[in-house]
Write a structure and sequence with these properties.
Blueprint lengths: L15 H7 L8 H11 L4 E5 L2 E4 H17 L7 E5 L4 H13 L2 E4 L6 H11 L3 E5 L1 E2 L2 E2 H11 L5 E5 L6 E2 L18 E6 L9 E5 H14 L7 E4 L6 H5 L2 H8 L2 E4 L5 H11 L3 E4 L1 H9 L13 E5 L5 H11 L2 E7 L5 E3 L6 H6 L3 E2 L5 E5 L12 E6 L11 H7 L6 E9 L5 E6 L3 E4 L2 E4 H9 L4 E11 L3 E10 L7 H10 L10 E4 L13 H10 L9 E2 L14
Parallel strand pairs: 1-13, 3-4, 3-5, 5-8, 8-9, 12-13, 12-14, 14-15, 15-16, 26-27
Antiparallel strand pairs: 1-2, 6-7, 10-11, 16-17, 17-18, 19-20, 20-21, 21-22, 23-24, 25-26, 27-28
Helix pairs in contact: 2-3, 2-4, 3-4, 5-6, 7-9, 11-12
């Protein structure tokens, strides 16, 4: 970051940069330079499949260099921020690596973000340009850009994939490629979005050095090579399918990235069969949908070697079904866009891959597990996960007040996760610190109870949320999506939980049956939306209300807005 000291980022203090370079983590290579190396080595191999388009590495690299020239032509220079809001299309990767080539900084937004979030991201990053698609899932992103541009005069350019209307057409920016020096590898390469469940996400500054290390180490751990065919079904802009090792890792290794606009079984299974996909990354909800789809029997999925699951807690009852159903290796991935990534290893015993969330990438990933007073807990005890290391940020972008809370004085990031450390070095994620219910002083980790509920044969999905209570402060409400057929009764679920041996105070006070679970763009359960539903008092329409412990009936809508 030395060449752009004016950017609002927190650098790694010495002696850490020196240590990370001496130990070979930071190589002084930019993300585009790494892609260019791969393109030279694998020029004739297929790099990207997007619909009927099949680009070789040579073709892809040429498009990147030509698009970078077009960006320069309209005045985008090193250090400028450019918001990307694109679905899983090949142009996403062209734009990303073109920005890396010239040292401009992509801000990775999700297609599901709307005016409130996009306006905030543009304001936070002071973006000079936005690159969007014309329409996606029935939504006109050009109309959104008109609103944003009118209220943010610093936003000079809007580039559109598809029908650009009055804006700049993406294809019109392809220009004559020419040689140019790239950015310093210590500079900020990209801005990711934090995964916080409340408020507008913070911007996460990742450097070329630290991000490339995380990607390349992930490639090695996950056995990615030029023979890997990665089916990208999760949103391409999310950190998990982008870099763990994700599409970026596969491209840097010379493999093939197959882009899917949807992860539904009909689309995904057909692509696995057609392209002989070997690797896929899913969130638990999508993995469960794949498990329960009758379409599995109609497609040849034998090429699939590894199924990664991350982004949210994977219940052991679901994890146990993956390998037998798909004949592949399950790899759990637990990480965060701020840095730390943990993997179960491909040669781990199956029982370990099912029961834990893996161990860190690096020997220099420093881990602390502490209590509420920041004192280290006894070995094997549950505590708050703190971390610092060669690819974990030291502060959010332009957020000094938040950084004081989110980081310790000596630079450890407070992940917000509650974990325990096994003697093997693997982490078991118990839940989120903020996803706790304080029931009269008794702390309930929501994910623990959710995992038990998901083991019930009649429960398709479950989320535990806090509801206000005058006497206890908070009570627990279990929101349940039942499998087709007869919904389980509350007393049945209570008895089931008792049989599984959980503490009585952890048994939900109330149950609410809903038709579907509201989810964030990456597939995590949207608990704020669930709480809004309950607070709004809308009538329940699809299943009997559940009430326990003599509490009054709790209304809950069929689905959250």
């Amino acid at each position: 970051m030395a060449n752009m000291p004016s950017l609002p980022v927190v650098p790694w203090p010495e002696p850490f940069p020196q240590r990370y370079r001496e130990r070979g983590y930071w190589l002084g290579v930019s993300l585009y330079a790494a892609l260019a190396d791969a393109a030279r080595l694998h020029a004739a191999r297929i790099a990207i499949v997007c619909g009927e388009r099949r680009w070789t590495y040579a073709e892809f690299d040429l498009r990147v260099r030509r698009f970078a020239a077009g960006l320069r032509r309209i005045g985008i220079v090193e250090g400028d921020r450019v918001l990307l809001q694109l679905p899983n299309v090949a142009e996403f990767h062209v734009a990303s690596f073109a920005l890396f080539r010239i040292g401009a900084i992509p801000v990775f937004a999700q297609c599901a973000h709307r005016r409130s979030e996009i306006a905030q991201f543009v304001a936070q990053s002071q973006a000079r340009a936005c690159i969007v698609i014309d329409r996606e899932a029935g939504f006109d992103h050009r109309g959104l850009m008109r609103e944003i541009r009118d209220t943010h005069p610093g936003l000079r350019h809007v580039v559109v994939v598809g029908d650009a209307a009055e804006f700049i057409a993406f294809d019109a920016l392809y220009d004559t490629a020419h040689d140019a020096s790239g950015p310093d590898a210590s500079s900020v390469a990209l801005l990711q979005l934090s995964g916080g469940s409340t408020g507008v996400p913070k911007l996460i500054p990742r450097t070329h050095d630290d991000y490339l290390y995380s990607i390349c180490a992930s490639v090695e751990i996950c056995g990615v090579s030029e023979n890997t065919v990665f089916l990208c079904v999760l949103p391409a802009a999310h950190n998990f399918p982008m870099s763990s090792p994700g599409a970026f890792g596969v491209l840097l290794a010379g493999g093939c990235v197959v882009l899917a606009r949807s992860g539904d079984p009909a689309t995904a299974f057909a692509l696995i069969e057609r392209e002989r996909a070997t690797l896929v990354a899913l969130v638990p909800a999508l993995a469960q949908a794949w498990l329960e789809s009758s379409l599995r029997a109609r497609h040849d999925l034998d090429s699939l070697a590894v199924m990664q699951i991350g982004g949210a807690y994977l219940a052991e009852s679901i994890a146990m079904r993956i390998a037998p159903a798909f004949g592949c290796t399950l790899q759990q991935v637990f990480g965060m866009a701020e840095g730390l990534v943990n993997y179960t290893r491909l040669d781990d015993p199956p029982a370990r891959a099912v029961a834990c969330q893996g161990r860190p990438i690096s020997a220099d990933d420093e881990i602390r597990i502490v209590d509420d007073d920041d004192q280290e807990v006894a070995p094997g005890e549950v505590g708050h996960l703190l971390t610092r290391g060669p690819y974990t940020i030291r502060g959010y972008w332009a957020a000094p007040e938040h950084n004081v809370v989110a980081f310790t004085a000596d630079g450890f990031y407070r992940t917000g996760d509650r974990v325990r450390l096994l003697p093997s070095g693997d982490l078991v994620v118990v839940g989120r610190a903020k996803d706790q219910i304080n029931r009269g002083g008794e702390k309930i980790a929501a994910e623990e109870v959710e995992a038990h509920l998901l083991a019930h044969p009649a429960v398709a999905d479950a989320a535990l949320i806090a509801i206000a209570d005058r006497m206890l402060g908070e009570k627990a409400c279990a929101c349940i999506v039942a499998r087709p057929g007869t919904a389980p009764q509350p007393r049945e679920l209570q008895a089931f939980l008792r049989e599984r041996g959980i503490a009585a105070y952890k048994i939900p006070d109330r149950f609410a049956f809903i038709a579907r679970m509201p989810r964030t763009p990456i597939g995590k359960i949207d608990k704020p939306a669930l709480r809004h539903c309950i607070d709004s008092g809308k009538p329940l329409s699809t299943a009997p209300r559940a009430q326990t412990r003599s509490t009054p009936p709790l209304p809950c809508p069929e689905s959250a807005p």
